Amino acid sequence: MEASRPADVSHYLGVFRRHWWIALIATGAGLGAGAALTSAMPKVYESSTAVLVQAVDQDTNAQGGRTKGSVNLDTEAQLVGSGAVAAKAATLLRSSRSPIELAKDVSVEVPANTTVLMITFKADTPEGAQSGSHAFAEAYLRNREETAQSGLDQQIKTLSAKIKQLTTTLTGINARLARATRGSSDESNLQSLRQNSQNQLNGMTGKLNELTTTTIGAGSIISDARLPESPVSPNAMINIATGGMLGLLLGLALAFVRERYDRRLRSAADVRDRGRMNVLAALDERTTPHFDDVLQPYGAGGRVFNRLRNEVLATLPPEARIIVVTGASRGSASTLVAANLAAALARTGSDVVLIGAHLPDSVVDAAPLARMLGISAVPGLSDLLAGRVGLNRALQRTPRIPSLRVITTGGAATAAGLMQSQRLKDTLDTLRGQGGYVVIEAPSTASSADAQSLASLADAAILAVELRRSRRPALLDAAEQLRRVGTPLLGAVVLPHLTNLRTAEPTAPAVTLTPPPATPDGPRPDDTAVLTAPQRFPTNTVSAAEKAALRQRDANSTEEITAVIDMSGAVKDPAKDGDKK
């Protein structure tokens, strides 16, 4: 399980900075999806009609109604979407849709403290929305008028029947009164009954006259529907903004998922938090050394290695003298760190030996330390361990840092298991006895087991981590390898990706192969070729006098042969070739 990271703003900003392209692509996809959805969705238009509702004799306000008047607007709002009103609206619209389908597209709102209904209709065209709203308003008013008129007619009919019945009763009373004896009690009772009936008839007649002259006023349209200019749905701005926001959130989520499962180390914080390792120094593109020289002590990069030197010296116990620098991935990160650390140690006046044990993958990649420090590429460690030269011959003093001596990697790959030889242990013991510091430039732990073998002979180890090339499992494995051999790991030196930091290679090869000199008896018996390397000087680091002196030294040297590569069969005797022809 990964170590937890500090949940600060810089961490989240770093994730966004490294994976901004994911968020950008997701946001663009969200914007495109919103635009596509807007174009694919059907357009919906709305139009509203304001209807003033007037009270009729049949209106009764229910308890808790919307207004305090005689009209219950909650009931009236429900009536607008009723089947009867929808049927009348369908007739007015001459639509083939069923009243139930039309009723689904209508909505009613009641403004506060008013007796007004806002009847809104939705349609796929502006004309359909306008005509639909007006049709439902008109149908509602007609339905309300018809309902009121029907109630009024029923009242007239009922009242007319009562008047007819009362007239018949009054006619009978008059006939009985005509036959009654004057002055009798029957006459008195009949006159009283006739008077009451006549009064009731007069009252009913007056009410009937009032009902027959009543005009029904159910309401009126105070604001007719208008032709909408733009659709209310889909809303392009809302859809596109929502799509962009969802895309951004999805992009951020994908960025954090990629960050969590990304094994590459992208910053010094990744090395510290995800690799659970102390970071001794962190360099950037401005302070990272190149392959043409070591860093100047007062430059930005030189100050970083000066602080690294101080931390190493403060951490090492007094008896610890040998430091191995290895990499967490293939590459030259360990070479740059080891060379500049050795130079920083040597500038304090201490005797420092830099051993190049990072054997090149090919002859073309040979002699990086020689180019950086201005020394000869051969003889080196491979020649020393093979017994071809002694320690004093392999040690070369750098021209600009007198306290720094270097043993290069040599001109040829060593035999398998040579890093575990007793000769290497004896060499390190000899250098330890001289009282100075020894810095070993080891290969990466991911490329060979030599790093672990060299670390077992050292007193402390430093890991060189190249960002965006080193991966977290390799870093953890490197720390585990060092732990298993019992070598204390001081920490890591973090460098940026070195692909774009290399200087242009010279036109001449770093190592050249020359045929062996002829002997009086013909070619050498071992059919070998001599591996030599031309002397190189870092630009603007060695004076002209020093260059001339070094060239004179090489010219006067009688021991030019350093490393030997077995070339059996590669160099042929011209005489033998002639005989064959």
From TrEMBL:
Its main location: membrane. Residues 506-539 are annotated as: Disordered. Keywords: Cell membrane, Membrane, Transmembrane, Transmembrane helix. The chain crosses the membrane at residues 20-41, 236-257. It comes from the Bacteria. Residues 8-93 form the Polysaccharide chain length determinant N-terminal domain. It is a multi-pass membrane protein. The keyword Transmembrane helix applies. Residues 211-259 form the Tyrosine-protein kinase G-rich domain. InterPro entries: Bact_polysacc_biosynth/exp, GNVR, LPS_length_determ_N, P-loop_NTPase. It is found in: Cell membrane. Belongs to the CpsC/CapA family. This is Uncharacterized protein.
